[in-house]
Amino acid sequence: MRARLECKDQADEAILERIQLLLLNVRQMEDYARDLNKEMSNLPPEADLRKAMRKEYLDFILKEKFYPAEIEQFNHWPIIALKHEVNKIKRIKRDSGMRKSAPNWNKYKKKVEDLTLEHKRKKQELVDAKVGPAKAIAKWTRQYTDDGYEGLRKRRETDPKLQKKLNL
Hints:
mainly alpha; 3 domains; about 65% helix
């Protein structure tokens, strides 16, 4: 209908070309929406969702664990570590031949100051490597910063021109 109105008093070929152009625009918008949806799914989950995921992982670990553990022992663990522990428990339950061992409890007991300094250093390296504008990177969550830094680390391995590391 729109093509007919825009191509009024023109030949059928012009109307057909206009329809094809409009359909191409629709297809491009669909592709853009699909790509944007993929990018949004890669963003870190919001705080409420993270809390729910953390609670779900902890409930599973405490229910299915094969070693003595209390919930307080997992306080310092990031969500990704809890997810790895859940996957480890599931693998051990499926494969009875795997060795049942307790996790390294001291692995995630870094001091908060050390973690904060490390987080700031990673953000600064991301800014220096021009991954994004400083204002945007400053707003990134710890998980998103870690993901971005991991991508930067992989790029450094393949691109010799990229600055190796920040000299402090």
